[in-house]
Structure formats: C-alpha cells, structure tokens
Amino acid sequence: MKNLFILLAGILLSYTTFSQEETKEKIQKTFHSISSHDLLDYAAELSSQKYKGRLSGSPEYLKSAEWVAGKFEEWGVKPANKGSYFQYFDNAYTEVYSIGKVIWHGKDGSGINKELIFPEEFYPGSNSASGEITGEMVYAGFGITAPELDWDDYAGVDVSGKIAVMETGLPYTKNDPTLAKWTPYAYHRYKFKNAKEHGAAGLLYVSKIANPNTSYIDGFIYAHIDVPVAELMFSVAGKNYSEHKKSLTAEFKPSSFEMGQSVTISAETKNFPGSKACNVVGMIEGSDPVLKDEVILLGGHLDGQGYLGELYPSALDNASGVVDIMAAAKALAESEVRPKRSVLFVLFGGEECGLFGSEYYVNHPLFPVEKAVCMVNLDMVGNGAGFMVTNGMTYPDLYNYFSEANENWLHRSMRTSELRKNYGRPRSDESHFENAGYKTFSLYTSGSIKPVYYHQPYDDIEALTPEIMEDAAKLLYLTVLGIANNE
C-alpha cells in the first residue's frame, strides 16, 4: 500500500508539473503574439484624418467607435450591452471649421496690431461661438465669485462688453477638505458661465491646450493663449505676469485690473447640442461556471481633442491606451488558456469633455460593483521606458500580479503608490470608479523617451514608442489572466 501511494503521488506530481509546463508554453505562445507593429497600425488608424481627432459626440468619433467594435467582433470579443457594443449618452459638441484669429491691438491708441500665430501663440476655443468680437481687455484672475469663501475676482472691475483674460485652476491648491469647498469653482464651465453673467463678451484663457471640456455659450467667443503672450500683455500694462499670478495665491486675495489694451477674437464654428457619444463595451465571458459572474475591467478613453481648424491626432492621449487594451483583448480572446473570470473592456467616450462616459458607466454598470474584482484604467500609455501603476500599496494582493508579470517576463522599471483621496476636481476616468467603490489602478508609462505634446496638434504616432506599448499590452494580458484564474 505504501509503495502504491508513493507511485500515485509520483504520477500526480509528474502530471501537475507537465500540466504547469504546458500551461506556461500556451501563455508564452500568446505573449509572443502581441506585436508592436500591430499596435502601431491600430494607433495610426485611430489617429488618422478620417476620424478628425475623435471629438466625442461627433460623427467621426462614432466611426472610430464602430471601427474598434469591428475589431472586437473579428477577434471574438463579445458585445457586452445586451447584444450591443455601445453604451450611448448625450454629448453635445462644437464643430470648429478654421483656426480663427486673435489680433492683439496693444495699448489703447498705440496702433499695434499683432496677429497671434497658430499654433505657437494661440489655439481656437473648442466650444467658442461663431463670429468676431473686439473689446477692451480686463484681467479677471481665476474668474471666481464665491462670497462664502470671501473671494470675488470681479470686485472693482467692469467686464461688460469686454474681453476677460483668465487663469485656469484655483487660488487654493492644498489637497485637503478645504479644497472640496473650492472645487465647484475649478470647472471651466463655471468660469465661462460666470464671465458671461458678469457681462463679458468673450475670453482669453491663459492655457494653450485644446480643451473640449468647456461650455458653448451662444454669442460668447473665446480662444486660448500661451503664457509668453500673457507676459507680453502684462508688460505693456506695466506688470510682471508671473509675479502677479503668484501673488494671487501667496497673498490669497484677488487682484483684477483693466489692462488698457484691446483684442479682436474671431471664430468659425457650429454647435450641435443634441448629439450623442458612446462607450465601446466588449467582454470575454469567464470559463468557470461560478467565477464568470465576477469581472475584471480594463478601461481607457477613446475620444481625443478633435479638429480645431487643424487635426489634433490624439495619439498618445489616448489612442495609445486604447490600442494597448485592444491588443490585450485580442490576446485574451485567442489565448489557449482561458480566463475563468469574465473580462470587460470599456473604451470611454466624453473623457476630454468632462469624464462623461465613465460617469455614465458607473451609473449604468454592466456588472454589479460588488462583482468587480478591480478596474484598471489606461491613459497616455505609449511613450516611455517604464511603468507606473497607481494604488498598488493600497491593494498589494492585486498589485502583485502586475509586479510578478513584470519581473518574470518584461523586466521594465515599475513604480507604485498608495491610494490618496482627491478633494479636487476629478481628472481621469478611474476617479468615478474609485468613488463608486471599485478597487482601481491606473497604468501609465514613465521615463518619457520622446517629447510629450499634451493636447497639441503634434500628438501624432511619431510621438509614440511602440516597444512600451507592446509591453503594456503584454503586462495587461499576463496580469488579467493571473487575476482571472486565481481560485
């Protein structure tokens, strides 16, 4: 009997070892099928002129969503929303037909007419009304009126019929409970509405980035200007821009003033208030009859900054994250080692407009939140030499799957952090999931190899490093498979 037991134990150990080796070989086969060439092709497609920068709500965005859904279908990733690959939600957008103009007239009576240069000195407003306005310029600080916080940037100045020159952000910057009181005033939409309510005819925003996260207000024309332009305008007014801006937070009191200068802003646009965008939702159902009710979510935003008289390809932000998820989805769908838990892929619309798609998903989840093992968000994961995975110190058991996959297979540098409550404005899609009770991670690349052209027309596929994108997709494949199959 003892010899029989030893024999059976030996057979079982031999079978287990063989089975483990066979599984590893199957995983390795799929791992090596993930190719940077495919990823770059996907990114080139999404960044191409035909999708016009994937502005959420636009027909071109919907075409890009259909293209991704077509790939999911081709690979066997199933539609996740009652037979559909799409979750639709309301998303107004503004078509920008030309770059427009910003002509600075300098000091009153000076005779200066400097036309700002696109894209070096200004960007058109993503949600500007169409037309042309000329008006006197009034520096309006952060554009905030908050009596309960003893702050009013419009006190002592009159912007009626004039052009407000305004900062983004808040005068209060500490991430503590006090910041929560200020947060409603951080939104661009609030600032625009408040400027209009004070009678401003238009706005120069000292923030040269393409930004659909603003509001369309009928008749309200605006543009974004670069900091050196603001510095020049301040110097003509006899002030130092950087010192003046610092004083707003250092002395913590408003300091608005009439600039004694004028400007002309023109825009050629059309607003579409009744349009819709969508999330693209695909899934791989788990192979285990019990565990398949649990789900791992991979998310990233599909939309970009759109077309502002010139294409903003939105390659790094965020075609890179989308194609990393697509490649992982293809690998998981074709893998001989099947995930026992289900995997849901959610490509969000409306992120650049204000996290519309992720907010819609958490309010209309396709799996109950209590069945979600975790949510991993990817944003700008296509330029660098290493990885950053947030919140790993808070969820070490789950983070170990990332770190072990990297250590055993990829050998990239990888850092992590602990979860810290954000009292300010939510800035990325995982924020909505975190607030809804999901265990969240964000995967980023670190150690940029190429320049990062954030919300600029230069963010094309030349700004990507395909090798890190390939490894990001491989990291997702290994990590998700590890979490999915842990019984």
Question: How would you characterize the overall build of this protein?
Answer:
- This protein has 487 residues and is α/β, with parallel strands linked by helices.
- The chain has two domains: 31-91 and 275-484, Zn peptidases (Aminopeptidase, 3-Layer(aba) Sandwich), CATH 3.40.630.10; 95-269, Glucose Oxidase, domain 1 (3-Layer(bba) Sandwich).
- The protein has 13 helices and 21 strands.
- It has helices spanning 2-33, 36-46, 59-75, 177-182, 188-197, 227-236, 241-252, 315-334, 351-354, 356-363, 396-410, 430-435, 466-484, and strands spanning 78-79, 86-90, 93-96, 101-107, 114-115, 122-124, 131-139, 145-146, 151-152, 163-166, 202-206, 221-225, 257-267, 269-272, 276-284, 295-301, 342-348, 372-378, 386-389, 414-416, 440-446.
- Strands 1, 2, 15, 16, 17, 18, 19, 20 and 21 form a nine-stranded mixed sheet that branches.
- A hairpin with a 6-residue loop joins strand 4 (101-107) and strand 5 (114-115).
- Helix 11 (396-410) packs across helix 13.
- The chain is elongated.
- The relative contact order is 0.16.
- The model is unreliable at 7-18 (pLDDT under 50).
SSE blueprint:
Layout: H1 2-33, H2 36-46, H3 59-75, E1 78-79, E2 86-90, E3 93-96, E4 101-107, E5 114-115, E6 122-124, E7 131-139, E8 145-146, E9 151-152, E10 163-166, H4 177-182, H5 188-197, E11 202-206, E12 221-225, H6 227-236, H7 241-252, E13 257-267, E14 269-272, E15 276-284, E16 295-301, H8 315-334, E17 342-348, H9 351-354, H10 356-363, E18 372-378, E19 386-389, H11 396-410, E20 414-416, H12 430-435, E21 440-446, H13 466-484
Parallel strand pairs: 7-10, 10-11, 11-12, 16-17, 16-18, 18-21, 19-20
Antiparallel strand pairs: 1-15, 2-15, 3-14, 4-5, 4-13, 6-12, 7-13, 8-9, 15-17, 19-21
